[in-house]
Write a structure and sequence with these properties.
The chain is mainly alpha-helical. It is built from 4 helices and no strands. The chain crosses the membrane at residues 9-28, 34-56, 63-83.
Length: 92
């Protein structure tokens, strides 16, 4: 039973990422940063939608580390974008 839930999670994430890539290509705005952010959003949604009610398996507890790394990557993308927007006079 645990394997089927795990595979449902994996299939959901793969479907989200493929749909994300197709939509971004159709809109003509495919970039690594945007794909990463929307995929992270999908990862968080799929994690919540497939969460068990009572018992949390060990593989789901390890997802916290992936979420933490994803949020660090998201923070990096946000800081980079903010630094691109700010005028050079702010730094110096």
């Amino acid at each position: 039973m645990g394997t089927s839930r795990r595979m449902r999670f994996v299939h959901g994430q793969i479907a989200w990422m493929l749909a994300t890539a197709m939509v971004l290509v159709l809109l003509g705005s495919l970039s690594y940063e945007l794909f990463f952010v929307v995929s992270l959003l999908g990862f968080l949604i799929v994690t919540e939608l497939t969460a068990p009610i009572v018992i949390t398996p060990a593989w789901r507890r390890r997802l916290r580390w992936i979420i933490a790394l994803g949020l660090l990557g998201f923070a990096y993308v946000v800081v980079r974008r903010i630094l691109e927007i700010l005028p050079p006079e702010v730094f110096g």
